[in-house]
UniProtKB/TrEMBL annotation:
NAD(+) binds at residues 45-46, 122-123, 148, 150, 161-166, 185. Belongs to the NAD kinase family. This is NAD kinase. GO terms for cellular component: cytoplasm. Its EC number is 2.7.1.23. GO terms for biological process: NAD+ metabolic process; NADP+ biosynthetic process.
Amino acid sequence: MKVAIVHNKEKKTLEVTERLKTLLSQANIGIDEHKPELVISVGGDGTLLAAFHQFSHALDEVRFLGVHTGHLGFYTDWRDYELEELVDSLLTNREQSVSYPLLKVRVSYLDEKPDQCFFALNESTIKRSNRTMVADVYIKNELFESFRGDGLAVSTPTGSTAYNKSIGGAVIHPSINAFQLAEIASLNNRVFRTLGSPMVIAQDEWVEIRLENTADYLVTIDQLDMPKTNIRSIYYRIAKERIHFASYRHMHFWHRVKDAFISED
Ligand code: NAD
């Protein structure tokens, strides 16, 4: 098995990474930063998101595993003091994995620039900071509503506990192959009207957000900001590709939610 390690720059993480490298080498597991079968992120959820984007071109070949050096993460199953156990389980449970849905994001531009496609593991947002964002929301090519407000967030089930949750979206179990559209501070009055509730969109449906012709939108895909360009519209749907996690140990989703947001056992 070939392994790549993606880590953040914190002192504790660097120490953990060195220890992990030693244990992997003692177990005859090679490091391959370019064509790995397993990507181990060491850090927090943000580090796992970075690892995902680094290897999103090879989703069919790569499995992910997260070691957290801080608080319990949503994508990081292993604690930094469990490295021996982790390496042992790599040797004994090689075949197990669990997969989660991803969002496919297609951006189309006003000029001749070709469409661009991205995957999001958590979410994609469209915002306008100091002026009202104006956009038409289409579901399956049919105009659903005209949105005015700060912005819109489109999230995956595993991303539903991230930014989506902060703006009042529902938490969705990742076995549900669907995505969620949630509003960020919509303007609702006698003139402007939107649904006002988060919506869960089925896997065979797609959403298009057609922007008013201005260039000052902020579009994010997980922790990445897209450069400000003349975006005409953004299409969202559930991707055929999924993220595969090496499931050497699996934590019950609702247990993880309780642990993170209500109380630790
Ligand atoms: P980061 O690593 O500091 O992450 C920010 C926080 O979000 C951390 O506490 C992290 O554990 C948590 N988080 C990330 N993914 C999560 C998930 N799927 N479920 C529950 N919690 C999750 O910073 P970053 O690298 O910039 O991470 C980017 C992510 O941070 C974005 O995808 C977005 O979801 C989240 N975020 C949230 C808010 C908010 O809640 N107001 C604002 C900005 C970004």
